[in-house]
Design a protein that fits this description.
This protein is α/β, with parallel strands linked by helices. The chain folds into 2 domains: 230 residues, Aspartate Aminotransferase, domain 2 (3-Layer(aba) Sandwich), CATH 3.40.640.10; 116 residues, Alpha-Beta Complex (Aspartate Aminotransferase, domain 1). Helix content is 39%, strand content 14%. Helix 5 links the parallel strand 4 and strand 5. Helix 3 runs parallel beside helix 4 and helix 8 packs parallel to helix 12. The protein binds pyridoxal-5'-phosphate.
């Protein structure tokens, strides 16, 4: 049996350190916004090279809070990609703003930067790029457009912890970077967790107030905020894993490179593209194939998991379909038809990759 992600093996490698830290929290009985959250925020900020990192309850909340702190309001438009997890667009909708979907680049699966300007209207307030599957967006071009039009930039880094664009970490280019620590993420905790990064002192201050019931001082509330805090138990786990995240990402990259070496040149299989300006951290290893159904069936029969990230682009989702009826985004629609994600995690062995590739190969060419 080969799963999409193997959290059990990873846990065994760090078990003692985690259990010791968790026990200490249980004994200290300081569970919310305590010393581990504070230390993790500092360690994460140092690792990423950003002034502030603010923990919160999930990646979805990170996006919601960051958009709110950036001043996004009802009636505003936020340009984003249709080929992402629903949370990217949900966060925009929570504020009464409208997601404006721009098609994706067929190679990187990230938002097609060349189509962004045509989507800007007088209501556009922000761009929300997603570093999908761990592949960094071309942030130089995106920031240039945002600056020229006076738009905010909120990066969705849920899948890109440790990814770099021209030597700089994702989540450090825009007004804010939003991370998810969902267990299967490149840096994951043992439940829900998230974080927002920013260079701005003002934004950081707003975010701290927003995540904690609009409160700077206990029982004094200046605005309507949220209950969205990272807890101490999750912070212990994240501190333990942060020390190893480079090795985890290297393991993912090595696995991806081995897959691509074995799968490239096969008819009917397009391995994922890796841009030369960044460090791709392969949250997913997602190829394109017209033979997806047959490959998935055979993988399943061989006890190998596979998944479709994502089968339906957001403008075609039931929740949005009425609002985007006439919208055609052909690249995202075509990619959604052919994308197939194979198992990838730092501990995936060469033998396992070999086994998976042998099944996939049977369908090369149809
Ligand atoms: C691209 C993207 N954005 C946002 C999220 C939301 O993160 P969370 O599940 O922590 O709320 C996820 C992951 O689940 C994601 O993959």
């Amino acid at each position: 049996m080969i799963p999409m992600v193997d959290l059990k093996t990873q846990y065994q490698q760090i078990r003692l350190e985690i259990e010791e830290g968790l026990l200490r929290v249980l004994e200290d009985a300081h569970f919310i916004l305590g010393p581990n959250v504070q230390a993790f925020e500092q360690e994460a900020a140092d690792y990423l090279g950003v002034r502030h990192a603010i923990g919160c309850a999930s990646g979805t909340d990170a996006l919601h809070l960051a958009l709110a702190a950036a001043g996004i309001e009802a009636g505003d438009e936020v340009i984003t990609t249709p080929f992402t997890f629903i949370a990217t667009a949900e966060a925009i909708c929570y504020l009464g703003a409208r997601p404006v979907f721009v098609d994706i680049d067929p190679q990187t699966f990230n938002i097609d930067i060349t189509q962004i300007e045509a989507a800007i209207t007088r209501r556009t307030k922000a761009i929300l790029p997603v570093h999908l599957f761990g592949q960094p967006v071309d942030m130089d071009s995106l920031m240039e457009i945002a600056e020229r039009h006076g738009l905010k930039v909120i990066e969705d880094c849920a899948q890109s912890f440790g990814a770099q664009y021209r030597g700089r970490q994702t989540g450090t280019f825009g007004d804010a970077g939003c991370f998810s620590f969902f267990p299967s993420k490149n840096l994951g905790c043992f439940g829900d967790g998230g974080m927002i990064t920013t260079h701005s002192d003002e934004m950081a201050e707003k975010l701290k107030v927003l995540r904690n019931h609009g409160s700077r001082q206990r029982y004094h509330h200046s605005i309507i905020g949220y209950n969205s805090r990272l807890d101490e138990l999750q912070a212990v786990i994240l501190r333990t894993k942060l020390k190893r995240v480079d090795a985890y990402n290297q393991g993912r990259r090595a696995a991806a490179h081995l897959y691509s070496e074995k799968l490239s040149g096969l008819p009917g299989i397009v391995p994922p593209h890796e841009g030369s300006t960044g460090l791709h951290v392969y949250h997913q290893y997602t190829l394109l194939t017209p033979n997806r159904k047959a490959i998935m069936r055979d993988l399943d029969e061989a006890g190998i998991s596979s998944a479709i990230y994502y089968p339906i682009p957001l403008h075609r989702q039931e929740v949005f379909a009425d609002h985007y009826r006439g919208l055609s985004l052909p690249v995202s629609e075509a990619v959604a038809e052919q994308c197939l994600s194979l198992p990838i995690y730092p501990e995936l062995s060469s033998e396992q990759i070999h086994t998976i590739v042998e099944v996939v190969k049977c369908h090369a060419g149809g």
